[in-house]
Amino acid sequence: MGDRRLRLVRPNQQQGRQNEVFNEMLRGYATMLLAAGRDRGSVGKLLQILRGFVVWADAWPWEWTAQDVDEWSADMRDRELALSTLRNRQGVVRRFCEYAVNPQYPWLERCMEEFGQVPEQVCHEWNTTRHIEEYDHRPERREISRDELRALFDHVDDRVERMVSANHKSAAIAWRDATMFKVQYGTGRRPFELVQLQTCDLLPHPVAPQFGRYAVVRVRWGKRSKGGTFRTRGVQMVLEWVVEALRVYVEDIRPVFPDGPWLWSSERRDGAGRQQPVGVRTYQAAFAARRDACGLDEALTPHCMRHSYLTHTAEAGRDPAWRQRQAGHKLMSTTSLYTHTSEDFMNRELAAAIADLTGRRGSET
C-alpha cells in the first residue's frame, strides 16, 4: 500500500478531469445535505472523511469496490479505532454512495460518459459494523463505584487543604478542579457540557428554594444529533453537598480567577486580555492526575462520572423519565445503557423480591 497516494499527488490531464468531477460530486452532495437541514460544520467533516477515503483507496468514487471498504475498515481496526468511529465512517461512505447512484442526480450518466464506469454501493450489511454490532459498548467503560468516588473526593479535598495551608500558588486551581469533579458527578453532565458552563447557567427553582441560585444547572451546549443544533436542558440539583461545594467555589474561589462569563475560568487570559474557560483536555488531564494519585483504575475517565450519576440515581429509585431528562437523552433505551447497577443493589432487590413473594404466599394461605 506504499504507493496508494501516488496517483493522486501526481495528477496528469486525465487525473485533473477526474478530480474536477469528484469535487463537483462533493459540492452537489454538500448542497443536498444543507437542503436536508445539516449544518455547514458537520457537512465539512463528512466531506473530509470522503476525501480521506479517496486518498486511502487511491480510487475515485466510480472506482470504489467493496474490497476497498473491507481493507479500509480492517486498517481502522488495526489502528484500534473505536467501533463507533468505524461505523460512523462507513456510514458516511454508504450515504454518499446512495447519493451518487440515485438516478435523480446526474452522476451515473456523467461517470459512464467520461470514465466508462459508474458509482456503486460498496457498503453492505455484510461488510459494515452495523450488521456486526448493534451496540458498541466497551467493557472498560463503567461507573465509578461509591467507594472509588469517596476515595477520589477525599483525596482532592485533602490536597486542597494542604495547598491552602501551605499558601501554594496553585491552591485555587486545585479547588476549581475538585469542584468540577463534584459538579460533574452531581449533574451527570458530559465533560464538554461541563466546561462550557457560564455563571448565567446557574438558576433557582421554586421547589428547592434552599439551594438558591444553584438549584438548576442549565445545559446550552448539549450533545447534538448529527447535523442538528446543540440541545438545551436544565439539570436539577439533588445532592446538597454538591450544591454547597459549588456555592463556596462561586462565592469564594472564582473571584481569584480572571473575570468573565465562564464558570470554570482558566488562570490565563487570551492575547486580548479576555477570560478563557478550562478546556476539555485540561479537565481530562486533571482528572487523570487525581485518579492516578489515589490509585484508581486507569480505565476510568471523566465520562465515567456520568455513568455513576445515572447508575446511582437509578438505584435511588428516581423515575426513569426524570433520569432521561437529566441525562439529555432522546431515547429511554440510551439512558438504560448508562445504568450499571451494583452487586449490593442487586442483592438488596433480590432479598426484597423474595421477602415480598414470601409475604404474599403467606397471606394466601
Polypeptide structure, described:
With 365 residues, the protein is mainly α. The protein folds into 2 domains: 6-132; 146-306, Intergrase catalytic core (hpI Integrase, Chain A, Orthogonal Bundle). The chain is built from 16 helices and 5 strands. Strands 1-2-3 form a 3-stranded antiparallel β-sheet. α3 crosses α5, α9 (171-187) runs antiparallel to α11 (240-253) and α9 (171-187) crosses α13. The longest helix has 23 residues, at 13-35. It is globular.
Number of strands: 5
Question: How many structurally independent domains?
Answer: 2
Question: What is the CATH third-level topology name of the largest domain?
Answer: hpI Integrase, Chain A
The end-to-end distance, rounded to whole angstroms, is 77 Å
Radius of gyration: 26 Å
Based on helices, strands and strand pairing, what is the structural class?
A: mainly alpha
What's the CATH class label of the largest domain?
Answer: Mainly Alpha
The backbone outline, from C-alpha atoms, is: globular
Largest beta-sheet details? 3 strands, antiparallel
Q: Largest beta sheet: what is the strand line-up?
A: 1-2-3
Query: What's the CATH H-level homologous superfamily of the largest domain?
Result: Intergrase catalytic core
